[in-house]
Amino acid sequence: MKEWQHIEEMEAILKEHQEKVGELQELLTFLQRQQPEYQQLLAYYGSEKWYEDLAEDEAGNLPDSLARGVLSEDEIYNLIGDYHEVSVQMLQLVTDLLTH
């Protein structure tokens, strides 16, 4: 083993983490900026308008070309669950990072 191999290994770790932290910063910025839209989606989910739109879909009144995943209870519910799970993971990671 070269006596400087550990430096190369540490350099690789540094570069990878710099790249990933940069990506995380971009994603967090996106999520922070998009909170109003996410809150709008949550307000729509299960609202009177959502039920009206669902009834229109079930009656066959929406165009076939219209994406309607938002009318599926599962897709929005799963997104809410994903946000919760990611939030818990971030809290655990932050706690670990700040205590070590």
Automatic annotation (TrEMBL):
Source organism: Vagococcus humatus
InterPro entries from the UniProt entry: DUF4298 (IPR025384)
Coiled-coil boundaries: 7-34
Coiled coil found in the keyword field: yes
Superkingdom per UniProt: Bacteria
Pfam families: DUF4298
Protein name: DUF4298 domain-containing protein
Keywords for the protein's UniProt record, in alphabetical order: Coiled coil
